[in-house]
Design goal:
- One of its GO terms (molecular function) is ATP binding.
- Helices cover 33% and strands 29% of the residues.
- It has 84 residues and is an alpha+beta fold.
Length: 84
């Protein structure tokens, strides 16, 4: 079994209203000094481990880039466990 995690965050050049709300709230709780917060999501996928590792990696990259993340406003990182 191969497990992949896709971490998705707004691009640094895109205004993140959720991140800004969290940053502002931290100040209200006396936790000042945080200059920037970005709020994102993490998606975990499990797929069978049979097949060519390069093909599996390519397929997961396609899923992350073309389906899970919006490349106009988001960036992603793909972390794969279980591939040789």
């Amino acid at each position: 079994m191969i497990r992949a995690r896709v971490s998705i965050l707004p691009k640094r050049t895109v205004f993140d209203p959720q991140g800004e709300a969290v940053r502002h709230a931290l100040g209200h709780f006396g936790l000042s000094g945080v200059e920037r917060v970005r709020v994102g999501k993490e998606i975990e996928l499990e797929i069978p481990g049979e097949g060519d590792p390069a093909e599996i990696r390519s397929r997961l990259e396609t899923i992350a880039r073309d389906f899970l993340a919006n490349p106009v406003v988001e960036e992603y990182e793909l972390h794969i466990e279980g591939l040789p």
